[in-house]
Amino acid sequence: MEEIIQFDKELLLMVNGSDSLFMDYLILTLTNGLTWIPLYLGLFYVVLKSNKNVRDVLLILGAAGLCYLLAGAVDDSIVKPLVARWRPTHDPEIGSLVDVVNGYRGGNYGFFSAHAANTFSIAIFFSLLMRQRLLTCFLVGYSLINCYTRLYLGVHYPGDIAVGLLWGGFVGWFVHWLYCRVTIPAKYEMHHCMVPICILTITLLTAIVLALFGVHW
Fold first, then answer.
1. pLDDT (0 to 100) of residue 180
2. pLDDT over threshold 80, residue 1
3. φ/ψ (deg, to 5) at 86
4. Residue 128's closest CA among 162, 62, 174, 163?
5. What distance, in Å, lies between the first and last C-alpha atoms of the chain?
6. Vertex 45, ends 39 and 51: CA angle to 5°?
7. Distance between CA atoms of 93 and 204, rounded to whole angstroms?
8. Nearest-angstrom CA–CA distance, 93 and 38
């Protein structure tokens, strides 16, 4: 176990940070939860266009909320304080070696990554719900981008990310399974699913342009 933990630390130091201000600004924007609100609105648009009654829309909103509750809230309120594994930025052993961006260090504990669990649970739930391969690729990409930002900022070890992805994937699958026990999923057309795909693309391009001008949020 000690060898695995040491490898985890060495791997983090290999991918953490850079000498590029452009990358710093880009990552700070992409790790911000507010950046992805347009994507969530795009998914909500697809849900509205594909479900003809209020009950089904509310069930999906409730399912998405359950994904967040089981994936992230359980992690932050139970797992992190129980396991109490230091974030790399607070780790007495390697904290001084971690490249910190804009003074951001996160909370004390980092196991496991709520960013990874939250985003992957949403990606898996909506991928299973909408059953469109291209949308699935984009949603998984959105989650992996969020995971990379946490490594770049040095606030999670790769092991934190891996466990977060596993837990988030299970939560997304489980919530979709529950949803299918309650109702029959609607059919989702590809032309509707292009909306969140286009929004995600525009979001990434906007983040890149902002970083080129030395701006982030």
1. 97
2. no
3. -60, 140
4. 174
5. 38
6. 135
7. 35
8. 39
